[in-house]
């Protein structure tokens, strides 16, 4: 079984930071491994302190359910099939954009989570991280 | 007082696993007894790690309120009579499909909880478990 | 990276159950994988309901720190180097006997946790599980 | 107000990693700023997953009380003046070696927390990080 090394995580984070700098919005960026456990986290200078936890939870959520938190969010609105999932797992489930799985050979082996801007910004920074994986 | 033995739980889980295999979606399956306490849990290879907690909570919820989590969910949407119930009991209340009570002689004596796919898939796998009880 | 499959977990649990039956003390037995996530759990008929959580936490702890909970406990007494570790990780750290790592080729790839009797009984039942891995 | 930048945190972490490599014990290393909020975290390959939380909490604790967790631990044993402090702050207080304040011009502006080995190893790796600050 493959997973995410610290070197992988640093490469993902570096690419995500570059994108955040381009956007001009400081971000929290977190990477978890195949077990959902944190490998690395950075908070760029000036990024929201409330987003430390959110970036880590977005990464965990994306690995925990092998899905982007954006897509999970769509299915977790009132009346949708997963409404209520945000109350499970001790509050670790994030249901808004910014978390994306990291895959190798078609298997999810980790995830990146980004928090610090709008949902669209967070998701695009996470995508930049995924592209570097 | 009647309850669910480990042998009962294994029969329920085996039937649920068989259904999950047919559907081709790996699942977490949990069974609780008349006290709502876990009797047995399995995570099939490749099933979501975020669903460990959810399967157990769905089983707990179905016994705790003697209702399927699908039906409880219908009553827990915004504007409905139980909206907010998902925030009670320390986060153990699941309000989406996949938990079904286990009854004997018309009395609920336990429950099965399934998590790992769509709401419809989870519910059908739980039904297969119930049928074996 | 190797981990623990459901088939592995069932073999470990079966051996642990056999030992518990010999001792005549019903047990909770849990197995986690390389990420510390639950693979399977059983509560034998008559085993303590308060031990559901403890068996799972012992397994998690043994994988989280690659050590038996018995040995971790020796280092976590007042005045010892890890005193206070039991208050970390949201209360998931168990510092009394019953959790043992599962290793393959010298690498810890999971763990078994047992709770339901004395520390000595729990540890011996866990050892029986490890021997079957 | 002076604090710890991401660049500072990376310099501290790099020095700590170097020391951990010399010791041959993979570590979790975390740095917090003057508000006690996480700036950066890394888990070296093979480091204990249970130490993610502990490294962050050690850093938080050292800034929260402007003291090393080793010294705080000495005062938090049974019978000592701070016994019980490990149960406060939602479980974030670590009372064993590995957390050390980061100071500038005699003022504590952040902290580093290390977890992954013995108390002595964790403390020495944290000291290496402090020296680079």
From TrEMBL, chains A, B, C, D:
Organism superkingdom: Bacteria
SUPFAM superfamilies from the UniProt entry: GlcG-like (SSF143744)
The protein's name: Heme-binding protein
Gene3D superfamilies the record matches: Haem-degrading domain
The organism's taxonomic lineage, starting at the top: Bacteria, Bacillati, Actinomycetota, Actinomycetes, Micrococcales
PANTHER family: PROTEIN GLCG (PTHR34309:SF1), SLR1406 PROTEIN (PTHR34309)
Signal peptide span: none
Pfam families recorded: HbpS-like
């Amino acid at each position: 079984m493959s997973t995410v090394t610290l070197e992988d995580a640093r490469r993902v984070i570096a690419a995500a930071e570059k994108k955040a700098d381009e956007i001009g919005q400081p971000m929290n960026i977190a990477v978890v491994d195949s077990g959902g456990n944190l490998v690395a986290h950075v908070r760029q200078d000036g990024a929201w302190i409330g987003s430390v936890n959110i970036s880590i939870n977005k990464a965990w959520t994306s690995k925990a359910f092998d899905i982007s938190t954006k897509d999970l969010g769509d299915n977790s609105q009132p009346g949708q099939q997963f409404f209520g999932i945000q109350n499970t797992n001790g509050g670790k489930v994030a249901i808004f954009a910014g978390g994306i799985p990291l895959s190798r050979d078609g298997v999810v082996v980790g995830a990146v989570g980004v928090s610090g801007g709008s949902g669209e910004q967070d998701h695009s920074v996470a995508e930049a991280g995924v592209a570097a994986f």
